Automatic annotation (TrEMBL):
Family classification: Belongs to the cystatin family. Phytocystatin subfamily.
Molecular function as annotated in GO: cysteine-type endopeptidase inhibitor activity
Keyword Magnesium: no
InterPro entries: Cystatin (IPR027214), Cystatin_dom (IPR000010), Cystatin_sf (IPR046350), Prot_inh_cystat_CS (IPR018073)
Pfam families cross-referenced by the UniProt entry: SQAPI (PF16845)
Name the UniProt record assigns to this protein: Cysteine proteinase inhibitor
Species whose genome carries this gene: Riccia fluitans
Keyword Hydrolase: no
Cited PROSITE patterns: CYSTATIN, PROKAR_LIPOPROTEIN
UniProt keyword annotations, A-Z: Protease inhibitor, Thiol protease inhibitor
Domain Cystatin, first and last residues per copy: 48-138
Length: 144
Protein backbone atom coordinates (compact mmCIF):
# COMPACT_ATOMS: atom_id res chain seq x y z
CA UNK A 1 0.00 0.00 0.00
CA UNK A 2 1.36 3.34 -1.08
CA UNK A 3 1.43 6.13 1.49
CA UNK A 4 0.43 9.50 0.09
CA UNK A 5 1.89 12.78 1.20
CA UNK A 6 -0.44 15.39 2.64
CA UNK A 7 -0.19 17.37 -0.61
CA UNK A 8 -1.05 14.35 -2.79
CA UNK A 9 -3.96 13.44 -0.51
CA UNK A 10 -5.31 17.02 -0.73
CA UNK A 11 -4.89 17.01 -4.52
CA UNK A 12 -6.84 13.72 -4.86
CA UNK A 13 -9.58 15.03 -2.56
CA UNK A 14 -9.86 18.23 -4.61
CA UNK A 15 -10.13 16.26 -7.88
CA UNK A 16 -12.70 13.89 -6.35
CA UNK A 17 -14.76 16.81 -5.01
CA UNK A 18 -14.63 18.55 -8.40
CA UNK A 19 -15.92 15.47 -10.25
CA UNK A 20 -18.60 14.95 -7.63
CA UNK A 21 -19.73 18.57 -8.15
CA UNK A 22 -19.82 18.07 -11.94
CA UNK A 23 -21.92 14.92 -11.53
CA UNK A 24 -24.36 16.66 -9.17
CA UNK A 25 -24.75 19.71 -11.44
CA UNK A 26 -25.21 17.40 -14.44
CA UNK A 27 -27.88 15.42 -12.60
CA UNK A 28 -29.79 18.62 -11.77
CA UNK A 29 -29.56 19.69 -15.41
CA UNK A 30 -30.99 16.35 -16.59
CA UNK A 31 -33.78 16.44 -14.01
CA UNK A 32 -34.59 20.04 -14.97
CA UNK A 33 -34.74 19.14 -18.65
CA UNK A 34 -37.01 16.17 -17.94
CA UNK A 35 -39.70 18.05 -16.06
CA UNK A 36 -42.07 17.48 -18.98
CA UNK A 37 -45.26 15.64 -18.12
CA UNK A 38 -45.51 12.31 -19.93
CA UNK A 39 -48.97 13.35 -21.15
CA UNK A 40 -47.69 16.55 -22.80
CA UNK A 41 -47.46 16.69 -26.55
CA UNK A 42 -44.04 17.18 -28.09
CA UNK A 43 -45.11 20.66 -29.22
CA UNK A 44 -46.12 21.62 -25.66
CA UNK A 45 -42.83 20.31 -24.32
CA UNK A 46 -40.87 22.24 -26.99
CA UNK A 47 -42.73 25.45 -26.17
CA UNK A 48 -40.96 25.49 -22.82
CA UNK A 49 -37.54 25.59 -24.47
CA UNK A 50 -35.83 28.86 -25.30
CA UNK A 51 -35.96 29.65 -28.99
CA UNK A 52 -38.85 27.28 -29.68
CA UNK A 53 -42.02 28.73 -31.27
CA UNK A 54 -44.67 29.59 -28.67
CA UNK A 55 -48.42 29.88 -29.26
CA UNK A 56 -49.90 33.36 -29.03
CA UNK A 57 -53.47 33.67 -27.80
CA UNK A 58 -55.86 35.66 -29.97
CA UNK A 59 -56.08 38.44 -27.39
CA UNK A 60 -52.30 38.95 -27.13
CA UNK A 61 -51.00 41.80 -29.27
CA UNK A 62 -53.85 41.49 -31.75
CA UNK A 63 -53.15 44.89 -33.31
CA UNK A 64 -49.45 44.03 -33.66
CA UNK A 65 -50.26 40.61 -35.14
CA UNK A 66 -52.75 42.16 -37.56
CA UNK A 67 -50.05 44.59 -38.69
CA UNK A 68 -47.58 41.72 -39.20
CA UNK A 69 -50.23 39.73 -41.11
CA UNK A 70 -51.10 42.72 -43.28
CA UNK A 71 -47.39 43.22 -43.99
CA UNK A 72 -47.04 39.55 -45.03
CA UNK A 73 -49.95 39.79 -47.49
CA UNK A 74 -48.69 43.08 -48.94
CA UNK A 75 -45.19 41.68 -49.42
CA UNK A 76 -46.56 38.51 -51.04
CA UNK A 77 -48.74 40.57 -53.38
CA UNK A 78 -45.78 42.75 -54.33
CA UNK A 79 -43.42 39.84 -54.98
CA UNK A 80 -45.90 37.57 -56.77
CA UNK A 81 -48.12 40.12 -58.53
CA UNK A 82 -51.19 38.86 -56.65
CA UNK A 83 -54.10 40.78 -55.18
CA UNK A 84 -54.91 39.10 -51.87
CA UNK A 85 -56.76 41.02 -49.16
CA UNK A 86 -55.86 40.39 -45.53
CA UNK A 87 -58.87 39.27 -43.48
CA UNK A 88 -57.56 38.01 -40.11
CA UNK A 89 -54.98 36.03 -38.19
CA UNK A 90 -56.20 32.44 -37.72
CA UNK A 91 -53.32 31.36 -35.47
CA UNK A 92 -49.94 32.70 -34.46
CA UNK A 93 -46.72 31.59 -32.85
CA UNK A 94 -43.69 33.67 -32.01
CA UNK A 95 -40.11 32.49 -31.90
CA UNK A 96 -37.28 34.44 -30.35
CA UNK A 97 -34.39 34.53 -32.82
CA UNK A 98 -32.26 37.59 -33.58
CA UNK A 99 -35.53 39.46 -33.21
CA UNK A 100 -38.90 37.73 -33.49
CA UNK A 101 -40.00 35.22 -36.12
CA UNK A 102 -43.77 35.26 -36.46
CA UNK A 103 -45.28 31.94 -37.63
CA UNK A 104 -48.77 32.85 -38.84
CA UNK A 105 -51.78 31.27 -40.44
CA UNK A 106 -53.52 34.11 -42.25
CA UNK A 107 -57.00 34.20 -43.74
CA UNK A 108 -56.99 36.19 -46.98
CA UNK A 109 -59.46 36.85 -49.80
CA UNK A 110 -58.43 36.55 -53.41
CA UNK A 111 -59.86 35.28 -56.72
CA UNK A 112 -63.39 35.22 -55.20
CA UNK A 113 -62.33 32.72 -52.50
CA UNK A 114 -61.20 32.92 -48.90
CA UNK A 115 -58.11 30.83 -48.21
CA UNK A 116 -55.65 30.28 -45.40
CA UNK A 117 -51.94 30.91 -45.92
CA UNK A 118 -48.87 30.08 -43.85
CA UNK A 119 -46.50 33.00 -43.42
CA UNK A 120 -43.26 33.64 -41.57
CA UNK A 121 -42.24 37.21 -40.90
CA UNK A 122 -38.92 38.12 -39.31
CA UNK A 123 -39.02 41.34 -37.29
CA UNK A 124 -36.04 43.16 -35.74
CA UNK A 125 -37.52 46.44 -34.48
CA UNK A 126 -34.21 47.89 -33.24
CA UNK A 127 -32.92 47.71 -36.84
CA UNK A 128 -36.27 48.76 -38.35
CA UNK A 129 -36.17 45.43 -40.22
CA UNK A 130 -39.18 43.37 -41.24
CA UNK A 131 -39.07 40.70 -43.95
CA UNK A 132 -41.37 38.05 -45.35
CA UNK A 133 -39.49 34.76 -45.12
CA UNK A 134 -42.21 32.33 -46.21
CA UNK A 135 -45.72 32.49 -47.67
CA UNK A 136 -47.72 29.59 -49.10
CA UNK A 137 -51.24 28.14 -49.06
CA UNK A 138 -52.09 26.37 -45.80
CA UNK A 139 -53.39 22.81 -45.79
CA UNK A 140 -56.54 23.70 -43.80
CA UNK A 141 -59.56 25.34 -45.40
CA UNK A 142 -60.88 28.78 -44.54
CA UNK A 143 -64.44 29.77 -43.79
CA UNK A 144 -66.37 31.42 -46.61
Amino acid sequence: MKVLSKEQHLQQKTIRDFFLLVIIVGAFAVVGACTCNANQSEEDAMAGLMGAPKDVSHSENSAELDNIGQFAVEQYNSKEGKNLSFKKIVSAKTQVVAGTMYHLVIEAHGDDAVKNYEAKVWHKPWENHKSLEHFKPHGGSASQ
